[in-house]
Amino acid sequence: MNVRRLIPTAAITGAVALGLTALTACSSSDASDHKSGDRLDVVASFYPMQFLAERIGGDHVSVSSLTKPGVEPHDLELSPRQIGGLSDADFILYLKGIQPAVDDAIKLSESKNTLDATTLTTLEDHGTEVGGEEHGHDEHAHEHEDGEAGADPHIWLDPVKYTEVAKGVGKALEKTDPDHAADYRKNTDTLVKELGTLDTAYRTGLKNTGTRTFITTHSAFGYLAERYGLTQEGIAGIDPEAEPSPARISALHSIAEKKKVTTVFFETLASDKTAKTVARDTGLRTDVLDPLEGITKASKGDDYIEVMKSNLAALRTALGAK
């Protein structure tokens, strides 16, 4: 996955050493505090993983996220303390391919209980390069082994794939903390039912529309588009703030006319400048389609389920749902 800022492995290695040194004085007391308590210390890489850990773990976990609210996940830089703290976590839940800094830190931390969410489902290539063809419902998406370069990591935006991940997280927590396995199973079942209801709402709500194509600054919705028979047209690939070329704007203008597109979507954690530029040049309106990489005051909902419902409402309006 092409991200805007990468941290050299050497820098991560140095930070790990520094972080572990900084934590030496407090690690013993932290460990004893955990042992005297009854909650699992869980570290999540960013919001979609945090949501699963909190919902499935319930009262038996204490969840912290490496990505604070309002921080663009792709640009995350970890502090030495965050990196060093990974070694003290009881359970780490992350999604490989979204945040290289996190991937490198986890690899070097030698943490025992880590779970990469991409191993719980099948990754696909949705053509997220600039001007790339986006997969629709009738096109076959090339499947990748977990972590393979070129695979789209935005699996949480497909309720069905997110369900697969949720089930895997539940089983992993049961294994890590068998004393509370029954509760983890119960919480997983409850969440799976909610995600099933969400999937049904999307299938029903997007069944009959005036167009099947939408334009977005951030090519994060390939799985969602394929799941519900839509076509995603990214302005500039995976970078929500990249400036589109004149040729791409011209192509989008033609696509908008041909496919009866009405809306250019932007997201909450990035500037709407690009979306407004394209909308102005193509005569379209703008709206928010949230890739759910973080929850902020600007989010249209307090959690994953609520924001996904808001996304459905936005898509129904943009696509002219009947």
How does this model look, in words?
By secondary structure, the protein is α/β, with parallel strands linked by helices. It has helices at 9-36, 47-57, 80-85, 100-109, 159-176, 181-205, 222-227, 246-259, 273-282, 304-319; strands at residues 40-44, 61-65, 91-94, 114-116, 123-125, 142-144, 213-216, 231-234, 263-266, 285-288. It has a four-stranded parallel β-sheet, sandwiched between helices. A four-stranded parallel β-sheet has the order 8-7-9-10, with helices on both faces. Helix 1 (9-36) crosses helix 4. It is globular.
The number of distinct β-strands equals 10
* Largest sheet entry: 4 strands, parallel
Helix content: 40-55%
Strand order of the largest sheet: 2-1-3-4
Write the layout of secondary structure elements.
Blueprint: H1 9-36, E1 40-44, H2 47-57, E2 61-65, H3 80-85, E3 91-94, H4 100-109, E4 114-116, E5 123-125, E6 142-144, H5 159-176, H6 181-205, E7 213-216, H7 222-227, E8 231-234, H8 246-259, E9 263-266, H9 273-282, E10 285-288, H10 304-319
Parallel strand pairs: 1-2, 1-3, 3-4, 7-8, 7-9, 9-10
Antiparallel strand pairs: 5-6
Give descriptors for this structure.
single chain; 322 residues; alpha/beta; four-stranded parallel beta sheet; 12% strand; globular; disordered N terminus
